Amino acid sequence: MKEYFIGIDLGGTKIAGVITDLKGNIIKENIIKTMAEYGDKAIVLRIINLIEDLIISSGKTLEDIRAVGIGSPGPLDPKRGIIITTPNLPFENFDIITPIKEKFNVPVFLDNDANVAAIGEYTLGAGKNTKNMVYITVSTGIGGGAIINGKIYRGNTFNALEIGHMTLLPDGPKCNCGNYGCFEALASGTAISKRAEEAVESGRDTSLLNYFKITSYEVFKEAEKGDSVSRHIIDSSLEYLGIGIANIITLFDPEVIILGGGVMKAGQIIFDRIKEVVDQRCFKNMASACKIVPSALGEKSGVIGAIALAMMETE
Amino acid sequence: MKEYFIGIDLGGTKIAGVITDLKGNIIKENIIKTMAEYGDKAIVLRIINLIEDLIISSGKTLEDIRAVGIGSPGPLDPKRGIIITTPNLPFENFDIITPIKEKFNVPVFLDNDANVAAIGEYTLGAGKNTKNMVYITVSTGIGGGAIINGKIYRGNTFNALEIGHMTLLPDGPKCNCGNYGCFEALASGTAISKRAEEAVESGRDTSLLNYFKITSYEVFKEAEKGDSVSRHIIDSSLEYLGIGIANIITLFDPEVIILGGGVMKAGQIIFDRIKEVVDQRCFKNMASACKIVPSALGEKSGVIGAIALAMMETE
After folding, report:
1. Cβ of A289 and B156 within 8 Å?
2. Domains plus CATH for chain B?
3. ipTM at complex level
4. Using the beta-carbon criterion (under 8 Å), do A153 and B151 form an inter-chain contact?
5. How close, in Å, is residue B19 to chain A by CA atoms?
6. Taking a contact as any Cβ pair under 8 Å apart, which residues of chain B between 59 and 118 contact chain A?
7. DSSP secondary structure of A20-86
8. How confident is the model at residue A227 (pLDDT cuts 50, 70, 90)?
């Protein structure tokens, strides 16, 4: 009867999978290791095994599956189902959907993880009942996806919303991409921990000295406890986060901006500061019309997003 | 037989109008003064007279007119046909389309001048045969409009692509909008002439001293002749222009960016410098896939854009 979807969230260290009903309710879920070191074909086999496990353990058969959605790091070509290249996975112009399609004889859809999360929030999360929304994830990098007039907006080369690489400070710190002053070189989790490590190395008096390894989590924690170096780092990073989001509002004029990713775990302090900066930098009517809210799907945004991709493409 | 369109380009000092066939070929055109000092209703009457003149002078009747398109400075509400407010015209939440609709009993459509120019380039100009494109006008300010999946993208409050107010330099010069370091405070014609005036006032040795009033045109001219102060101003402004355009590519990943507005008259030097900056700041595949070209409609982008708006809305 084809009343179930399968969603796969492919990452550098693990692959998560779910089987859901047509409304996106999870029937079974599972997480396996990626084992990227065994190469591209081995990963496809592991995904195929994961899909079989999900079907069998939920008491279903292949005839019950309407479609499979896959979210993967990019850049990739969603039309041809090809992962072009990606830092933590052994893919080079690799067609990941044909072997899965052929194995199961069901439609398989691929998109990059930020787009998949955007589709997930739009269909089943914090973006329900909107027409135009932008999803932004802030973790080691900064990525994004936009729903425009009810559809995912992929752009000409499928790279739209590469928001982590928007220039916000032309003479700012060097980004991994080679450019200077990119959004993610100023406001990502990596930017926060890098600035903290620089402060420690330069001998500043800070409670960050107590840590062997500093992630953005520790910097937020010490800032909250009153450490002035940490406070300064967080304040400056959140200002840039606010500026980047203000630019997204100025350009996309969306109904809602949904924020996900590890850095968002720091909670309300982030939203308060972003709102402050957005109010300073955007036109009043645009700023007040645009809600800025946390992801509703949270850590499930990858798998549920993959389900939502399969839903959207088979509508 | 309804085989003609009328396009109106409403400006602070003049109102231009054209009547065209269904392909956008101009049959007759006319330009009258706005006479904004006589108030909102007087402007509507002048537009009505202009439309009547265009119909009569081209030997047509009201029965020949399929629709009227109007481009106006914004912000405005294209759905309700209301001009919300605009600096150089006496409108406050003024319904400009109802009186014209009632007078002629034809459909009347309104949009802001940047969107109208974008629709014009998409339908009849440099954006033909694309699906995703961005139009940018650089003159006293910087504005823009985007076609996404073949449709003008207006956003939630109809203010999408307020690109002049994207922050590019957080501690940069103050913009008219009250924010600091906006794109148009760094790269518009006004920004260029303002920087030139500051250079003159500060006693710099420059050939700009020969002018009583300096617009961006004089600064480009003196830069070309070798004046080092002018060169520096132009180079810095064009770098910001390139950064702003690089951000648009990074976010919208369009097939083409079309540049219009008075500053573009300086010609190839602008495109060369923009390309250089875009290549530095964008991902290679996105930069090389996106053409950056001059407006094909030029000074007619307002009236022909209004025609294209009428075409698009009556399709």
Report:
1. yes
2. 4-113+302-314 (3.30.420.40), 126-295 (3.30.420.40)
3. 0.95
4. no
5. 32
6. 75
7. EETT--EEEEEEEE--GGG-HHHHHHHHHHHHHHHHHHTT--GGGEEEEEEEE-SSEETTTTEEEE-
8. very high
